[in-house]
């Protein structure tokens, strides 16, 4: 089972599944589970970069008949953005006023 990421929308007051865009030339919309990969964080751009690794989780149960020796050569980036403080404050004030009155 793939991990799903949800983002809470203050405007819509609901959780939405984060939809990952497809990479040109790739059939996968998100990276497959992996181990032995390289992951770095660029603090200036606030982006995570991930390269390569081996497919699977690396657990003993995963090693039966799997292509554990195959090396991946894909490159992914992840940028997480949050709303501005003013937007959050207005939305929270509105929600509090709904529940208090």
Quick structural summary:
This protein is 16% helix and 31% strand. The chain has one helix spanning 85-100; strands spanning 6-9, 14-17, 34-35, 38-42, 47-55, 72-78.
Protein described:
- This protein has 101 residues and is α+β, with helices and mostly antiparallel strands.
- 16% of the residues lie in helices and 31% in strands.
- The chain contains one helix and six strands.
- The chain has one helix at 85-100; strands at 6-9, 14-17, 34-35, 38-42, 47-55, 72-78.
- The strands form two sheets. Strands 3, 4, 5 and 6 form a four-stranded antiparallel beta sheet that branches.
- β1 (6-9) and β2 (14-17) form a beta hairpin.
- The longest helix is centred in the last third of the chain and has 16 residues, at 85-100.
- It is elongated, with a radius of gyration of 19 Å.
- The N and C termini lie far apart (43 Å).
- The model has no long low-confidence stretch (mean pLDDT 77).
- Secondary-structure element string: EEEEEEH
The whole-number mean of residue pLDDT values reads 77
Beta-strand portion reads 25-35%
Helix content: 10-25%
Shape: elongated
Largest sheet: 4 strands, antiparallel
Low-confidence stretches: none
Distance between the terminal alpha carbons, to the nearest Å?
Answer: 43 Å
Cα-atom radius of gyration: 19 Å
Which structural class do you get from the secondary structure elements?
alpha+beta
Quickly count the helices. 1
Question: Would you count the extended β strands for me?
Answer: 6
